[in-house]
Batch of 2 targets.
Target 1
Amino acid sequence: MRYYLRRAAFYAITVWAAISLNFLIPRLMPGDPADIMLAKMARSGEVAPGVERTIRLLLGSDTNQTPWEQYVAYWGSLLRGDLGVSVTKFPTPVTELISAALPWSIGLLGLATVISFVLGIAAGAWIGWRRGTWVDHIIPGSTLLQSLPYFWVALLLVYGFAVVNPWFPRIGGYDVFTFDGPEATAEFVGSVIYHGVLPALTVVLSSFGGWLLGMRNMMVSTLSEDYITTAEAKGLRRSRILIGYAVRNAALPSIAGFGISLAFVVTGAIVMEQVFTYPGLGKLMITAVQGNDFALMQGLFLVITLTVLAATFLMDIVYGFVDPRTRLNG
């Protein structure tokens, strides 16, 4: 129990620090979201003082408040679920924009990451178990795929399977000519899956090799341990040695890495989403940066940070159950 209490206290302090930095950093950057909005409005005519005051209050840029008062107000807004108003999509709240884009990133990239992890771990365990045979020749090809950038793989897939052979669509998350928006129908789900094949394949091909190589090396190291030799000397079945002794221990570092990878799913593969014009958080982040939308950037960074911390905390809990030595030594 002490282990879990220590981890919970550590992550509580980390969350406070992350939120405080998320409040501070945008205010140290040059420019102001209210000034940007007022400059756009000034092109159409003079802006009344009352309107200027309203815009500054709406975008959290009230110059009459001290930094401490702004910090307290920021925490109050967070506790109410208010992340501000987007400048590029004015007057849409940031929470609505993130809520609309988040399911796309989680659905596509989350599933692709899980598939990549499962395939990589299974293949790496098998290759490590049969080390020194012909299966080791798979390693160079998988390593080559891992070294390729996401966007380059995406461009190759678009060229090969959407331009030269128009089997899959080039852009979008669904058929915008058939559907006005997301619908709870089988036709819409089929359209989403059809449009998500190439983006998902990009993630799987680019990350599969890393899991495979890491698991293979851990299997080779684990198979040289004394407890594996003891299990073989006791005459245990090879399948039991493989699953119960080798894979279980070799997969521990990969489980921790998987938690981090799954947490970063919310960011989306930013450039990959831009290539496919996929409506996820990655594309939304590019929109925020291009439009100097500080409120939207701040909201996205906060969601990313909290998701990474939550996933890491969850992996610490799981790790404590899987490997009791963590609780005893922690």
Note: The mean pLDDT is 78.
Target 2
Amino acid sequence: MQMKILRRITVVALSIWLSACGSGSTSAPDVVVPPEPTDPPFSNAKVSCGGFKVKLSQTLPWAVSPPSDWVVMGSSSAFGAGASVPEKSWVGLLKKSTVAATATIHNIARGGDLTYQALSSACVVSSDRPKTAPEHNFEKALEYKPDLVILSYPSNDIAVGYSVTEAAANLLLLRWQFAQKNIPVLMLSAQPRNIAKEQQAKLLELDSILRPLVGACYVDVYQQLVDAEGNLAAKYNAGDGVHLTDAGHQIVFDAVMQRISSRQCVSVN
């Protein structure tokens, strides 16, 4: 009895297949292609800080009206390391620029900081990762009631061995949290660094992830600072393969100015 049922099912299935294909038919069966995700998933298993979205709903450009307060968050390059005097660092140059003439710039960057230290104090971070730094983090930036935040964490996460996904997720989380308070973020790219080739490749990977997601608010400086070997170019190297000379800081400042002046991300009145 069971054999008869199986034979009958086989005959019916074969008949359906033949009728669908047709004798000599060359038409291919329909292929169902899943739709592109509207918001690529991003997460960092080392951080519990609530969900966030990669794509922002705000329409660009963000309006920044005078007088305004800008906050710079980041590590040693944003702090000014390598520059001969603070005024020649990229933040020092920004403070003197005409575009920031009506802005007060608060620099809370600190040498050696990683993206973890910038996170909100409300985030729960794994014990094997740095804790947030109250004088240099999300809440500290909010104390200045910023109209614009500039993030610059160019290489430390990768240099100490953390993954590309961790660094990218932390930066995108910060961007999302500021956006929820109607605060635009300019995000600076990675910078070349004299480290192992596999780590240099990760810096490029980090850029390749963030660039399309941040879009018009991404300030790309990597290719302007790198040499043919993937290191920080000699004329921009302050001597340690990490920090920028005055000329290197000028490159970063010019790129920031270009992004602001384009009025594609922010419109500074």
Note: The longest helix spans residues 2-21.
